[in-house]
Each structure stands twice: as C-alpha cells, then as structure tokens.
Amino acid sequence: MRKIMARIGLGLLLLIFVAIVLCFYFNQFTYAYGLIVVLLFVFGGMGQLYKLKNDEYMYAKLNKRDEYEDYTR
C-alpha cells in the first residue's frame, strides 16, 4: 500500500510540474503561480511530518535509553 501511495504522489507531483510549465507557456501566470504555492504547501507539510516523526523517534530513543540504564545499574 505504501508503494502505491508513493507512486501516486510522485505521479501527481510530476503532473503539477508539467501543468506549471504549460501554464507559463500559455501565458496563464496566475494559475502557474497558484500551482507553485500548492507545491510549497505540499513540501512544507511533508517537512513538518518528517520533523514530527523524527521528534517522536528521538523522544522514544531517549526514554528507552534512560529506562535501560535504570535497570542495568
């Protein structure tokens, strides 16, 4: 399921890039800039999700290490 969603996401990103180029080619600058803003939101959201995932991992890692040291000493 994860591979399928990744392929769909990459396909949609590719289509957005193509749409941006076509909008600039047909002098539809408002739509092109709107799509660029959508891309910025998508990449910003992905960055926040990866940051959250990393924070959860680091929190679990630090708490697990403290618990391990408490039991081994």
Main sheet overview? none
Helix content: over 70%
Beta-sheet strand percentage? Answer: under 5%
- The sequence of SSEs as H and E is HH
Number of strands: 0
Low-confidence stretches: none
Number of helices: 2
Radius of gyration: 21 Å
Architecture overview:
This protein is mainly α. The protein is 93% helix and 0% strand. The chain contains two helices and no strands. Helix 1 (2-25) packs antiparallel against helix 2. The protein starts with a helix and ends with a helix.
Give a brief description.
This protein has 73 residues and is an all-alpha fold.
Topology:
Elements: H1 2-25, H2 29-72
Helix pairs in contact: 1-2
Q: Which characteristics define this entry?
A:
73 residues, mainly alpha
